[in-house]
Design brief:
34% of the residues lie in helices and 26% in strands. It has 172 residues and is an alpha+beta fold. The radius of gyration is 17 Å and the shape is globular. It starts with a strand and ends with a strand.
Length: 172
């Protein structure tokens, strides 16, 4: 896709976009098909940051991408995959709900014994871990991240922040 950036002598320079990666599909029904389709359409967040519009429906896309990477590419077990998908949904929900940004970025990485998921947005406002009461109907996102992730945090960037979590996983 050509962007609006002028190159040498006024020529248009291509804007880098995440490339779709096609992976073999595992048998698993419609949910796996939807996850594979999301990966093909949006790109692979384990290869390059995937930018998504800051809209509530992007949480579903981010969940599908996380499922496709965690289960399909990394072969994580069902429980770890479900936890990772849930926590992605919570971080994305916070980015959509609280930052006022047009887009956010999703990135996933695996290293020996760990996975790391990052959600980047242009806001420098820090998320707050609030106490949760039994009858609360909202505000549980970071509480869940704090309980299910082995580590989590926020890194301030020159233009925004990166909210991340890490989970221990079996080595390959």
């Amino acid at each position: 896709m050509m962007g609006g950036m002028a190159g040498p002598e006024g020529t248009q320079q291509p804007v880098r976009q995440a490339q779709a990666v096609t992976r073999p599909r595992r048998p698993g029904g419609a949910a796996d098909d939807a996850a594979a389709r999301a990966l093909e359409l949006c790109g692979d967040p384990s290869v390059d940051e995937v930018r998504l519009p800051s809209r509530p429906e992007s949480a579903a896309t981010a969940r599908r991408l996380a499922q496709s990477v965690a289960q399909g590419a990394w072969g994580l077990n069902t429980q770890l995959t479900e936890f990772a998908v849930l926590l992605v949904s919570e971080l994305v929900g916070n980015a959509v709900r609280h930052t006022g940004a047009r887009t956010f970025g999703l990135r996933m990485a695996r290293r020996r014994g760990w996975i790391r998921v990052e959600v980047r947005d242009p806001s420098r406002g820090l998320p707050c871990l609030l106490p949760v009461r039994e009858m609360d109907t909202s505000g549980r996102g970071l509480f869940l991240v704090d309980k299910l992730a082995d580590r989590w945090g926020v890194d301030l960037l020159p233009r925004g922040k990166c909210t991340w979590f890490e989970m221990r996983v079996p080595e390959r």
